[in-house]
Amino acid sequence: QSALTQPASVSGSPGQSITISCTGTSSDVGGYNYVSWYQQHPGKAPKVMIYDVSNRPSGVSNRFSGSKSGNTASLTISGLQAEDGADYYCSSFTSSSTLVFGGGTKLTVL
Amino acid sequence: QVQLQESGPGLVKPSETLSLTCSVSGGSISSYYWTWIRQPPGKRLEWIGYISYSGSTNYNPSLKSRVTLSVDTSKNHFSLKLSSVTAADTAVYFCARGNGIQLWLDYWGQGTLVTVSS
Q1: Inter-chain CB proximity A101 and B94 less than 8 Å
Q2: In this predicted structure, what is the pLDDT of residue A80?
Q3: Are B68 and B84 in contact (CB under 8 A)?
Q4: What is the per-residue burial (b if ≥16 Cβ within 10 Å, else e) of A26-52?
Q5: Cβ of B102 and A93 within 8 Å?
Q6: Do A101 and B45 touch (CB under 8 A)?
Q7: Beta strands in B1-118 (DSSP E)
Q8: Tens digit of pLDDT for each residue in A31-61?
Q9: Cβ atoms within 10 Å, residue A70
Q10: pLDDT tens, A7-33?
Q11: What average pLDDT does this structure show over A3-9?
Q12: Considering only alpha carbons, which residue of chain B is nearest residue A93?
């Protein structure tokens, strides 16, 4: 299974909004509403921010939102804060009942 | 609060078998999809596979021939064995809880670095 495609890096200033894309195929992202997004700070375990395309787990800020169109899912972070600087990974359920991750995106808060 | 903790050797010799255990506390292992993920230094996350509470498994096709997952509900832990390791298997190994068949991972262990070297 091939990794989902994410931009290597994105950046934004405090208070701004940014969007990270995650492109797959009809066998994963496009075929199911089972896309999740994870935030990972250096040396730490990932933390789920969004699941099932657009659902936020309890305790996750409503500044984080998710959406999907066709084979591409997106994570939007509004009101950017310094602590949002981290690596972000998307993942998707696949037609083989497996899980595939994206290549990861490094978010820099300027 | 559910907590997961990986344990096992931090150094494995090439061609040998990597063995890790994930202990689950604060909740029963008798549900969910118990999952292993790894991350080579400086690289992306890679899904290894899951084992359900009932013992059904599913593996990453690229690792399937070398991976075995098992679960011990009496001890509330699950385990990973990866055979015939090479330097390419050097990574931080995470265990996590898969919530539902959608496999979104809601609780993670802190991760453990396993280095393959002679």
Answers
A1: no
A2: 97
A3: no
A4: ebbbbebebbbbbbbeeeebbbbbbbb
A5: yes
A6: yes
A7: 3-7, 11-12, 18-25, 33-39, 46-52, 57-59, 67-72, 77-82, 91-99, 104-108, 112-116
A8: 999 999 999 999 999 999 999 999 999 999 9
A9: 10
A10: 999 999 999 999 999 999 999 999 999
A11: 97
A12: B102
Q: What is the dihedral of CA A45, A47, A52, A58, to 10 degrees?
A: 150
Q: Report the mean per-residue pLDDT for chain A.
A: 97
- Mean pLDDT per 10-residue run, chain B (118 residues)? 96 97 91 95 96 92 96 92 97 95 92 97
Look at the alpha carbons of A95, B99, A92, B57 in this order and tell me if their dihedral is positive or negative: negative
The reply to whether B102 touches chain A by the CB within 8 Å rule is: yes
Nearest to B104 among A40, A52, A103 (CB): A52
Which residues pair with residue B23 across a beta bridge? B5, B77
Neighbours of B111 (CB within 10 A): 20
Chain A: residues touching B (Cβ < 8 Å): 1, 3, 32, 34, 36, 38, 40, 44-48, 51-52, 57, 89, 91, 93, 96-104
Tokens of A96: 């083989």
Find where tokens 């409503």 sit.
Answer: A62
Closest residue to A101, CB basis, from B47, B59, B102:
B47
Residues in chain A: 110
